[in-house]
C-alpha cells in the first residue's frame, strides 16, 4: 500500500477467533448492556467496533472510524511493523477518563481467565494488560490503536525493557528527572517499539523528552550514513531550544546535533557536514532540500513538534516537501502537540502508518497547574492602566505579556520603558541575534517582563514564569492554551491573566470553556454567551498609549 494512502488508526481490529465465546455472548447482550445514551467509549456490535462520541450538548452520535470503512481490505495485508505487547481492547476516538472502554477491559480479561487459558504466557499477557490499564488510569493516559506497548513504570524500565545506555540514564538523573511524566510513560515505549505516535499532552508536560529519548536510544552517534533523525518546529526559537535540550541529554556522547540556521540552509553542504539529528523550521529545511545538498532518504525518525501549527496553511507545502524527502520506507513519524484539532487528525491520517494515538488528560485543555483569571478592562486605555496598577501593587517576575502584533509589542514596550521595570520585547521584526538575546536575558532573569507576540507562544520553556498576561485577547482557544502554557510547567504552579474589553466580549465563551475544563471558575453569564461560528478573533485595536490622541499622532 502507498504510504500516502495509509490511515492513522488503521490498526483497530478485533480478534474474533480468539474471543469467539465472548463475542457470541456480547453480541446478544451488547445493546442491552451498553445503552447508547450512556456510551462514551467502545461497543462491539454487528462485527465491527462502533465509536460513540457525545454531541456537544446531549445525545451521543455514532462515528465509524475511517479505518473501518477499509477494514476488509486492510485485514488481509500484513503489517510491516508489529508491537510487542499482547493485543488489547482499544479505546475509541473519544478516549477520556470516563470512557466505558475501561470498564469493558476487565470483563474481557476475566473471560480470558475463565476460559482456563492453558499457557502461562496467556496469563502473563492478561496480567500485563491489567497492569497497563491501571497505570494508564492512574496517569490519565488514553490510547487508541492496537497492541499498544505497556507504559513505563519508571525510568529504570528504559534499561530493563529497552536496554537504555547508561549514559542516558545518567543524564536523565543529572537533569533531575526522577519520574517519567505521563506522556513520556506512554509515548517513549510506543516509539521504541517501532510504532508511529500521535500524541497530545498538556503544555509543559515533557513532550520534548518523550520524542527525543527514543531517538537517542535507537540511533548511533557519528554514523557515516547521514542524517538519522529530523525534528521540525514551527519557530527558530523552539528549534534552538530543542537542540539545547538534545545536547543536554547526549552529554558524554558524540552525537552530531545540528540546528538548521539561515547560513546552513543556504550554503551548507550536508553531504559533508556530519549530522545525526537535524532540528529545523519547515521553511529552512524546505529551502535546503531544494538546494539539493541534503539527503534525507535515510532518516529513521521524523518528529513534527507543535504538529497542529505545522499543519496550518502557511506550513503545509513545506511539510509536504519534507515528508516526501524523508523517503525511507521504514521511517517512524511522530506528531506531538498540546492541542489537537480534529482537522489535524484527518490530515495526520494521510501521512501516518499504524500509529498509536496517545492523549494525556483532556484533549485541547490547559494545564491544570495554572490559575486562570479574566479581567474586564473596558477599553484599550483601561488595559494599560490595569497593567500599570497591577505592577505597582505587586510584580512577581518573571512575567510574560502577550500582544497581538509586533506594532503593539513595540508600543507597549515604549510605555513600560517609562516605568521602572526591566522590560524587553521580542517580535518578528528583530534580527535573529536580538531575538536570541531577548530569550536569553529573560531566561537568565536579567529581564523581568518580556513583551511578546505569538512568536514565542508555543513550546518555549522559560523556567519559573510566574505569570502570563494576555494583554491582547488571544485569537483562539488554541492560542490561549499555548500562551498561558508558558507558565505552570514541569509541575510548578503558574498564573494567567487575560484582559478583555467590550470588543472581546463575544469571544469570551471560547476561553471560558477552556478555563472550566481545567477546573477554573467562570461567571455563568460568560458561559451563556452565544456560540460563535467564526472562532478566530482578530480586531483592530486603538494604539497603546497614555498620551492624548493628538500627541500620540505627533510622536
Ligand atoms: N520527567 C521529567 N521530570 C521533571 N521535569 C521534566 C521531565 N521531563 C521534562 N521535564 C522538564 O519539563 C519542562 C517542560 O518540558 P517540555 O518543554 O518538553 O514541555 P512540552 O510538553 O513540550 O510543553 P509545550 O507544549 O509547551 O511545548 C522542561 O523544563 C523539562 O526539562
Topology (elements, then pairings):
Layout: H1 20-33, E1 42-45, E2 48-54, E3 60-63, H2 66-69, H3 71-75, H4 101-114, H5 120-139, E4 141-144, H6 156-162, H7 166-174, H8 182-192, E5 197-200, H9 207-218, E6 229-232, H10 236-249, E7 257-259, H11 262-267, E8 277-280, H12 282-291, E9 301-305, H13 307-310, H14 313-325, E10 332-337, H15 342-351, E11 356-360, E12 370-378, H16 380-393, E13 399-402, H17 406-418, E14 423-426, H18 432-444, E15 449-452, E16 467-470, H19 477-484, E17 494-501, H20 508-517, H21 524-527, H22 549-554
Parallel strand pairs: 5-10, 5-11, 6-8, 6-9, 7-8, 9-10, 12-17, 13-15, 13-16, 14-15, 16-17
Antiparallel strand pairs: 1-2, 2-3, 4-11
Helix pairs in contact: 4-5, 8-9, 9-10, 12-14
Bound molecules: adenosine-5'-triphosphate.
Catalytic activity: ATP + H2O = ADP + phosphate + H(+)
GO biological process, one term: maturation of SSU-rRNA
Enzyme class: hydrolase
Amino acid at each position: 500500500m502507498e504510504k500516502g494512502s495509509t490511515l492513522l488508526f488503521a490498526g483497530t481490529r478485533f480478534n474474533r477467533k480468539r474471543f469467539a465465546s465472548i463475542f457470541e455472548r456480547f453480541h446478544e447482550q451488547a445493546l442491552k448492556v451498553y445503552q447508547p445514551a450512556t456510551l462514551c467509549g467502545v461497543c462491539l456490535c454487528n462485527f465491527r467496533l462502533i465509536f460513540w462520541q457525545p454531541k456537544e450538548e446531549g445525545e451521543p452520535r455514532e462515528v465509524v472510524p475511517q479505518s473501518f470503512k477499509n477494514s476488509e481490505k486492510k485485514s488481509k495485508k500484513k503489517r510491516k511493523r508489529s508491537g510487542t505487547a499482547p493485543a488489547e481492547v482499544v479505546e475509541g476516538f473519544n478516549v477520556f477518563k470516563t470512557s466505558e472502554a475501561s470498564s469493558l477491559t476487565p470483563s474481557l480479561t476475566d473471560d480470558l481467565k475463565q476460559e482456563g487459558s492453558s499457557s502461562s504466557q496467556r496469563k502473563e499477557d492478561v496480567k500485563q494488560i491489567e497492569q497497563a490499564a491501571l497505570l494508564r488510569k492512574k496517569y490519565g493516559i488514553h490510547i487508541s490503536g492496537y497492541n499498544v506497548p505497556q507504559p513505563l513504570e519508571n525510568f529504570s524500565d528504559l534499561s530493563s525493557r529497552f536496554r537504555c545506555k547508561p549514559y542516558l540514564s545518567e543524564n536523565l538523573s543529572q537533569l533531575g528527572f526522577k519520574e517519567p511524566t505521563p506522556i513520556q510513560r506512554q509515548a517513549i515505549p510506543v516509539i521504541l517499539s517501532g510504532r508511529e505516535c500521535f500524541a497530545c499532552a498538556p503544555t509543559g508536560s515533557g513532550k520534548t523528552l518523550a520524542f527525543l529519548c527514543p531517538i537517542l536510544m535507537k540511533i548511533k552517534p557519528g554514523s557515516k550514513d547521514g542524517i538519522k533523525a529530523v525534528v521540525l518546529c514551527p519557530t527558530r526559537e523552539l528549534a534552538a531550544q530543542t537542540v539545547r535540550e538534545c545536547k543536554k541529554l547526549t552529554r558524554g556522547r558524540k552525537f552530531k546535533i545540528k540546528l538548521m540556521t539561515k547560513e546552513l540552509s543556504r550554503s551548507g553542504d550536508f553531504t559533508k557536514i556530519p549530522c545525526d539529528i537535524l532540528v529545523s523550521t519547515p521553511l529552512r529545511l524546505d529551502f535546503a532540500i531544494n538546494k539539493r545538498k541534503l539527503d534525507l532518504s535515510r532518516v529513521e525518525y521524523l518528529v513534527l513538534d507543535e504538529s497542529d501549527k505545522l499543519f496550518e496553511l502557511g506550513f503545509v507545502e513545506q511539510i509536504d516537501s519534507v515528508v516526501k524527502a524523508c523517503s525511507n520506507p521504514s521511517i517512524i513519524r511522530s506528531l506531538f502537540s498540546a492541542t489537537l484539532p480534529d482537522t489535524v487528525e484527518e490530515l495526520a491520517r494521510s501521512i501516518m502508518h499504524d500509529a498509536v494515538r496517545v492523549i494525556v488528560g483532556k484533549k485541547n485543555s490547559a494545564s491544570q497547574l495554572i490559575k486562570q483569571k479574566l479581567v474586564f478592562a473596558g477599553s484599550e486605555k483601561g488595559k494599560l492602566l490595569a497593567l500599570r496598577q497591577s505592577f505597582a501593587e505587586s510584580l512577581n517576575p518573571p512575567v510574560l505579556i502577550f500582544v497581538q502584533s509586533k506594532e503593539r509589542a513595540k508600543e507597549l514596550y515604549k510605555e513600560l520603558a517609562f516605568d521602572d521595570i526591566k522590560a524587553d520585547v521580542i517580535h518578528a521584526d528583530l534580527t535573529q541575534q536580538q531575538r536570541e538575546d531577548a530569550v536569553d536575558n529573560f531566561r537568565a532573569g536579567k529581564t523581568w517582563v518580556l513583551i511578546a507576540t505569538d512568536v514565542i507562544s508555543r513550546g518555549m520553556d522559560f523556567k519559573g514564569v510566574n505569570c502570563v498576561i494576555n494583554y491582547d485577547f488571544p485569537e483562539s482557544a488554541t492560542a490561549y492554551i499555548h500562551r498561558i502554557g508558558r507558565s505552570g510547567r514541569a509541575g510548578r504552579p503558574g498564573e494567567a491573566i487575560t484582559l478583555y474589553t467590550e470588543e472581546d466580549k463575544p469571544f469570551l465563551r471560547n476561553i471560558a470553556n477552556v478555563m472550566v475544563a481545567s477546573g477554573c471558575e467562570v461567571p455563568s453569564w460568560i458561559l451563556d454567551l452565544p456560540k460563535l461560528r467564526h472562532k478566530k478573533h482578530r480586531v483592530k485595536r486603538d494604539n497603546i498609549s497614555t498620551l492624548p490622541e493628538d500627541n500620540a499622532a505627533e510622536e
